[in-house]
Specification:
Radius of gyration: 23 Å
Helix content: 25-40%
Largest sheet: 7 strands, mixed
Strand content: 15-25%
Structural class: alpha/beta
Shape: globular
């Protein structure tokens, strides 16, 4: 297949309960690499959102567990068979390199496959009541039921397929209805996915996709009377706005990260350097779980920095459609310019630029910065791009933990050490949702719990199992149960 082939221009419509709906005003989607127009989507107004929620609420899903399983399995198989088609679309609208887009399409297969397997699992529980002097000869049973209202799902640009899938697959597995609003920066993949789900047999009333931006839609996605739960992945600023605006609704907020990779004095430095470079540059560094700070103890910092530089120089940044490229663009030139500014500011504060920071439009190549001051904006805030910042720390685990916890975020972390006493302290004392030993902070499987603390999130975690829990209500009932 010719990876370099330009995907056809897509003039898309919204999918409202399966109907294709257009508007006079549209939003243009551009390729970050070359600025070419990739497609257009409608600019929804509040009345379109209201229509989508009303149609969803009026429909009562009655899919059996088996039917849900089959829809999800057919979706997984379609994504597997059309992996390159989806990868091309992801790369065209996001600028992610071909390797990353293929990887994302493979991850999405797992999401639907795991959700399908869990859909047929009866997750009810049983409690005996004759377990105390006040007990009775009864049993209490629980079952999980779908929400009575509709799920409002709002997704970001950095994973146009997989982030959407992490909201849709658990919702379908639990017989829920969803109105999805993908970001205006990468909406085309979400619309293509909706069509796959319809083709797989999903009743169209169970999924609507509305497109546009807040300027045209207002707060409709977070204030609609039929929205019972809002699940959002994105920035802290928007997440806190949603939390304040949502009122008496459930919210699941997966927000930013400032994830450390910690390298202790006993670490295999070559392996640690590999994790640092890959963890900071995969997906163009645009992951909430990307390595954003490398905390290395002073005694091994010089050799570690040398190894990081060697590995970073091997990465090829360029045309995202070129299958040999390792790092594509970031989402747009404004973001790349911001990364460049933050690196320059850190250098002005005493950091040493070892490689990169030579931006070309939205292409921001892997950039290695050593001796980064701990209070530099580059590492104090979430820098959502392929920067590899090295912070040197005292040879004191307590001080390393203090520095790691000094950020407002608490999503994930990676730890490079073989000492059990260090590992147990990191697991117990790092203020994060995940501690990965000898892995990048972003390591997980699509089924495992995922989420953070502090400014990294609020509400239930993601991961298919946890999302299915948060998308349901526990109903309890009891029956006489004679001995």
């Amino acid at each position: 297949m010719n990876v370099q082939a330009k995907p056809p221009l897509r003039r898309e419509a919204m999918r409202i309960a399966g109907r294709k709906v257009t508007t006079d005003e549209t939003v243009e989607v551009f390729n970050p690499w070359n600025g070419q127009l990739v497609g257009t989507v409608p600019a929804a107004r509040p009345e379109h959102v209201r229509d989508a929620f009303a149609r969803a609420r009026a429909f009562t899903p009655k899919l059996t567990r088996y039917e849900r399983q089959q829809i999800l399995l057919r979706t997984a198989e379609a994504l597997r068979d059309r992996k390159e088609e989806f990868a091309r679309l992801i790369t065209a609208e996001s600028g992610l390199c071909w390797k990353d887009s293929l990887y994302e399409a493979s991850r999405a297969y797992d999401v639907y496959s795991f959700a399908a397997q869990l859909a047929i699992l009866d997750d009810g529980e049983t409690y005996a009541c004759d377990i105390s002097p006040m007990g009775k000869r009864r049993k209490i049973f629980t079952m999980r039921v779908p929400l009575s209202g509709v799920i409002s799902a709002i997704t970001p640009f950095n994973h146009p397929l997989n982030m959407v899938s992490h909201k849709l697959a658990p919702a379908i597995a639990t017989n829920n209805r969803v109105v999805l609003k993908p970001t205006e920066l990468t909406p085309l993949t979400a619309l293509a996915l909706a069509d796959v789900l319809y083709e797989a047999g999903l009743p169209p009333e169970m999924l609507s996709v509305v497109t546009g931006n807040p300027a045209s839609m207002g707060d409709a996605m977070i204030t609609d009377p039929d929205a019972e739960l809002i699940t959002f992945t994105g920035s802290v600023r928007v997440g806190k706005y949603i939390a304040a605006k949502a009122g008496y609704r459930r919210v699941v907020l997966e927000l930013g990260g400032n994830d450390p990779l910690i390298v202790m004095e006993d670490a295999d430095l070559d392996k640690a350097a590999e994790l640092a470079v890959q963890g900071a540059t995969k997906n163009s560094g645009q992951r909430c779980t990307a390595v954003k700070r490398i905390l290395v103890v002073e005694s091994v910092a010089e050799e570690f920095s040398r190894l990081v530089l060697v590995k970073a120089r091997k990465l090829v940044a360029g045309d995202p459609m070129d299958p040999t490229v390792d790092v594509g663009t970031v989402i747009h030139e404004r973001a790349a310019s911001e990364f460049e500014r933050r690196v320059n500011d850190a250098v002005a504060q005493g950091a040493r630029l070892l490689h990169g920071n030579d931006r070309r439009g939205a292409l921001y190549p892997p950039t290695v910065v050593d001796h980064v001051p701990h209070d530099a904006e580059l590492v104090r805030e979430e820098t959502f791009g392929p920067v590899i910042p090295i912070l040197r720390c005292p040879n004191d685990i307590a001080e390393v933990i203090r520095i790691s916890n000094s950020t407002a975020y608490g999503l994930s972390s990676g730890v490079c050490t073989n000492r059990l006493d260090y590992v147990t302290r990191f697991v117990n004392e790092l203020e994060v949702g995940t501690v990965n030993v000898w892995e990048v902070p972003g390591y997980r499987i699509e089924m495992s719990p995922f989420g953070g603390v502090k400014d990294s999130g609020l509400g239930h975690k993601e991961g298919v199992v946890e999302a299915m829990k948060s998308f349901t209500t526990i109903r309890t009932y009891s029956l006489p149960w004679p001995a």
